[in-house]
């Protein structure tokens, strides 16, 4: 029988995957593609929604999955030994997918420097056009 932790981890992973299928939300491929940029922006402090603490926890989760050291070794407790790995992996994947989905939406909403500069130039060009000057 699944424990409440296992159910919560599976539910979080399911929500993260399903949220990529809603119209207007970033798809799974876009979320995975944006992971390196999200980590880079979060570590540099440019992306405020993913704190360095949360980023560190996700990194610890990835290190735990990849590490040969285990809280419940598979060699001693076959089924129960894999449970902690599955829980951590579900938590890490769900956390990364949720965060990258939020990052994709944030990236869409925040104008890049080039876009911001070009829109300022357009605005100054429009206000200095002959038609604008003659109406003053």
List the helices and strands and how they pair.
Blueprint: H1 4-19, H2 28-44, H3 52-66, H4 78-109, H5 113-127, H6 130-134
Plain-language structure description:
- This protein is mostly helical and 136 residues long.
- The chain has a domain at 24-118.
- The chain is 74% helix and 0% strand.
The percent range for strand residues is: under 5%
The helix count comes to: 6
Distance between the termini: 77 Å
Order of helices and strands: HHHHHH
Total E-strand runs: 0
| Mean pLDDT value | 75
- What is the alpha-carbon Rg in Å? 22 Å
Name the overall outline: globular
Largest sheet: none
Low-confidence stretches: 114-136
Considering DSSP H and I runs of 4 or more, what fraction of the residues is helical? Answer: over 70%
Offer a few descriptive terms.
136 residues, 6 helices
How would you sum up this structure in a few lines?
By secondary structure, this protein is mainly alpha-helical.
